[in-house]
């Protein structure tokens, strides 16, 4: 008997749940049916996948197969979704993944212009961190990515989109918002400073040494902004973040921090609707985003 996808799905569900009962509920199957699929898989492999009949612990072989099974299931489910999407999108589909700090700047005008060029073509938008943008492109779950920093990836073209300067983000009620004269790093890096993942792309050794001692960090951009809005906390982010930040936050340049964040557009060279992906890329590149940042920042 060949290994079937349902065997892997039942095995993965039990491995994740740690018991048959919860796995059966998750899959909408009976426990005997799940147990039968597990036995078929073990018989085919001639290996025990669980240490005991309680199914609470995987054997060493089970651990290896579990990781392989999860990868195969993700690939299978992604393929089924792509087939279904193609069936209901005869005029094409383009999937775009972007870091949140750029999505608010690029998405609105991008969608408006693309609809003129390719009316009827569907667009799926998602905002996530840079690593997940790269993962989505690599796994074929996105056709276009917009991410921070440079990335060399097989089968993915990279084009520079714009760069924006890092600076202080704070509430207008914070003392630094009203400080006369230039803002310096020593003013910002204090017990009120929140470190974030984008800080890692700042190459200044002095900056990294100063921020390494930060007692608070936030990985999620929206959580970070919520903390800053409380008036007590401050952070350092690229200027484009203002396009997703509430209107009651301000950006101030830091005189001894001139680092800029590089934003790149990434395009998969092989996508289900490559023609439309290429057209959307051209639409995005037709705008001078750096000029827009300088001239069209949200008013504060």
UniProtKB/TrEMBL annotation:
It comes from the Bacteria. Coiled coil: none annotated. One of its GO terms (cellular component) is cytosol. Residues 3-59 form the HTH lysR-type domain. Keywords: DNA-binding, Transcription, Transcription regulation. It holds the Pfam family HTH_1. InterPro entries: HTH-type_LysR_regulators, LysR_HTH_N, LysR_subst-bd, WH-like_DNA-bd_sf, WH_DNA-bd_sf. One of its GO terms (molecular function) is DNA binding. Belongs to the LysR transcriptional regulatory family. This is LysR family transcriptional regulator. It comes from Parasedimentitalea huanghaiensis. The lineage of its organism: Bacteria, Pseudomonadati, Pseudomonadota, Alphaproteobacteria, Rhodobacterales.
């Amino acid at each position: 008997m060949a290994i079937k996808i349902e065997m892997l799905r039942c095995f993965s569900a039990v491995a994740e749940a740690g018991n048959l009962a919860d796995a059966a509920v998750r899959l909408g199957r009976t426990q005997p049916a799940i147990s039968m699929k597990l036995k078929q898989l073990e018989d085919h492999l001639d290996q025990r996948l669980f240490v005991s009949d309680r199914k609470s612990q995987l054997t060493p072989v089970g651990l290896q197969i579990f990781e392989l099974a999860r990868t195969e299931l993700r690939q299978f489910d992604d393929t089924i979704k792509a087939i279904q999407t193609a069936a209901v999108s005869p005029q094409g589909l383009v999937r775009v993944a972007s870091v949140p700090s750029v999505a608010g700047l690029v998405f609105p005008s991008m969608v408006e212009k693309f609809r003129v060029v390719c009316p009827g073509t569907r667009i799926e938008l998602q905002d996530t961190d840079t690593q997940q943008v790269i993962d989505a492109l690599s796994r074929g779950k996105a056709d276009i990515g917009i991410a921070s920093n440079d990335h060399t990836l097989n089968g993915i073209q990279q084009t520079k989109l714009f760069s924006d300067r890092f600076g202080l983000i704070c509430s207008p009620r914070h003392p630094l918002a009203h400080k006369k004269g230039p803002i310096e790093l020593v003013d910002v890096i204090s017990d009120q400073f929140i470190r974030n993942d984008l800080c890692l792309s700042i190459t200044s050794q002095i900056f990294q040494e100063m921020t390494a001692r930060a007692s608070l960090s936030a990985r999620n951009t929206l959580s970070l902004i919520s903390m800053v809005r409380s008036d007590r906390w401050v952070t350092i982010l690229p200027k484009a973040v203002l396009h997703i930040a509430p209107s009651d936050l301000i950006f101030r340049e830091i005189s001894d921090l001139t680092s800029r964040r590089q934003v790149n557009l990434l395009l998969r060279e092989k996508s289900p609707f490559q023609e439309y992906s290429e057209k959307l890329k051209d639409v995005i590149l037709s705008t001078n985003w750096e000029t827009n940042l300088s001239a069209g920042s949200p008013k504060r």
